[in-house]
Write a structure and sequence with these properties.
mainly alpha; Cyclin A, domain 1; 3-stranded antiparallel sheet; disordered N terminus; DNA-binding
Amino acid sequence: MGGRLESDTERGETVCSECGLVVEEDEIDRGPEWRAFDSAEKDEKSRVGAPTTKMMHDEGLSTNIGWQDKDAYGNSLSSRQRQKMQRLRTWNERFRTRDSKERNLKQALGEIDRMASALGLPENVRETASVIYRRALDDDLLPGRSIEGVATASLYAAARQAGTPRSLDEVANVSRVGKDEIARTYRYVARELGLEIEPADPKSYVPRFASDLELSDEAERRARQLLDSAQEAGIHSGKSPVGLAAAAVYAASLLTNEKVTQNEVSEVADISEVTIRNRYHELLEAEEELQS
DNA sequence: ATGGTTTTTACTGCGTC
DNA sequence: GACGCGGTAAAAACCAT
């Protein structure tokens, strides 16, 4: 290896290929664009650019103590000096990993906060999310995964645990990683941490949808009731909870004469109208059978 | 990878305002 | 004519194997 200077055009940096020293950087600002003026734009911009994090937070510029017990002239060290060096090595290693974790955490918590407020999630959810993230970090679940990904997964998990779930799509919309990675990371983290993850209860979506549509409490109650009957009838397996919830809300709006259109429901629930139709038929059937 | 299931997309027809 | 709604077929996404 020659230690040449290489221009990394993708990152806009000129770095020494051997030691990783960055000679010039930030010729290009490739940070994400945070501002979006309408929802279409939001979709585009929220995904701009990969997270900056390189494998080592300091990009390999921190101190390393050589493993050979030689001094600067190549002479061997006395055993007393060797012990000293050994101690230095372990301490250096400790400090390095410690503040690497700290930076990691700092960035992750920032992201969690950002996403949580974009999704309108309350304080306690953010706290749960940070706890989950911390545990993931302590259990060394991070290597091989992006900070952003794990942070998003933590938030997703926290929201579900708190009974105020957000769908994968919603979460993916405010995250800088795609939803497949979020799903994968979430599964992994949940398994490794032994998180209890009952499938999301459709009812937990109802309040949010109802209030987005400005429906009465009565309608909201009705929707819950519909979902209870559905559960009795066992219409539950395999169908998406969000779809069920959306259908229940729609049906309830009909039953209480507060007409909202299928289209409106599909908007706030992020579910297709067809699915609403199919589900709400099933819901009404189930309820009728329950009467007899 | 595969096959079965669910969801989405796109299109069509009907009634109403 | 646009809108809300219902149905259908085919494509796509999802999930367990």
